[in-house]
Write a structure and sequence with these properties.
single chain, 3-stranded antiparallel sheet, 0% helix, 4-stranded antiparallel sheet, globular, mainly beta
Length: 196
Amino acid sequence: THQTTMGSAYDGLLVKFGGNGTGVRAPYYGGDGYEYLEDVVVGPRNRVYICGSTYSTNNISTAGSYQPTLAGTNGWSDAFMAVFDSNGIRQYGTYYGGNHIDWADGLAYGNGRVYMAGVTRSSGIATTGAHQTSLSGNANAFLVSFDLDSFLYIKEPLPDVVLCGGDTLVIPYEVTKPFRSGNTFNIELSNSSGSF
């Protein structure tokens, strides 16, 4: 489990229930400030995606994240998004926001992307080519997508091949996007009965 104790007076709490309704695991999510958990979705491989708002300066982002530090100044919050595996271990976490108040209250998952929606009063958080690139009025909605998963697929059906020890087999494949550094993949081949 990611975090077994509270980081402050208000942390997010993510509970996984077993088939009989009993809590199986319940990691907290938060740091030295307040966290408000607003939405949760389950994606492929039973990964759990959460979002909300945070005032914490620690324990929210992971190394190499989109935004590794809290940008809200003068006590303002940032939105956050985090990913957990089915065992409650955090895989990824990031802040999302600017110098004013930002919060997220909706998530969706599709085609290897996580979409997060919320409200911002910060300027300068839009990316190049966005529908609206500057803050208009007092507060605006935002929609951001995170490209988190790479999928590997075999390009064409492979013919049946008889291999002998020491033979080399080349399998043409493509990926939906480059793997992050440090990621690996393994392929296991089976015979017609499914044995390895």
